Amino acid sequence: MSTNDIIGGNSGSPLINRNGEVVGLAFDSNIEGISNRFIFSSEIGRTVSVHSRGITEALRKMYDGSRIADELQAR
Fold first, then answer.
1. pLDDT under 50 in the chain at which residues?
2. What are the φ and ψ backbone dihedral angles of 31, each rounded to 5 degrees?
3. Where are the beta strands (DSSP E) in the chain?
4. Residue 28: phi, psi to the nearest 5?
5. What is the pTM of this model?
6. 3-state secondary structure of 73
7. pLDDT of residue 51
8. Is 41 helix (H, G, I), strand (E, B) or coil?
């Protein structure tokens, strides 16, 4: 969870940390985030994100996607 400013259509956008590293993907927002289309408020809007380690772990253990996970991790 974060206060990143997203609106509908941003799902799958990269989540970048302060060092400029991709650490995950934006996944969804809370219902209060709908207003971000018109005015941003860090008080109520929340962005739900998925950490990149969770994505690669799911690819390896749930989806038989080790080849894709290896490619994402440049192995």
1. none
2. -60, -30
3. 14-16, 22-29, 47-51
4. -165, 180
5. 0.59
6. coil
7. 87
8. coil
Is residue 68 within 8 A of residue 75, CB to CB? The reply is no
- Report the alpha-carbon distance of residue 31 to residue 59 in Å, rounded: 29
Rg over alpha carbons for the chain, rounded to the nearest Å, is 14
Residue type at position 14: P
**Distance from C-alpha of 25 to C-alpha of 45, rounded to nearest angstrom:** 17
Q: How many CB atoms lie within 10 A of CB 52?
A: 17
Take residue 35 and report the two structure tokens written for it.
């207003």
Contact 27, 13 (CB under 8 A): no
Q: Residue 5, SS3?
A: coil
Question: In 3D, which of 22, 21, 26, 31 has the Cα closest to residue 6?
Answer: 26
Q: How far apart are CA 57 and CA 72, in angstroms?
A: 12
Structure tokens that stand for 9 in this block:
């259509």
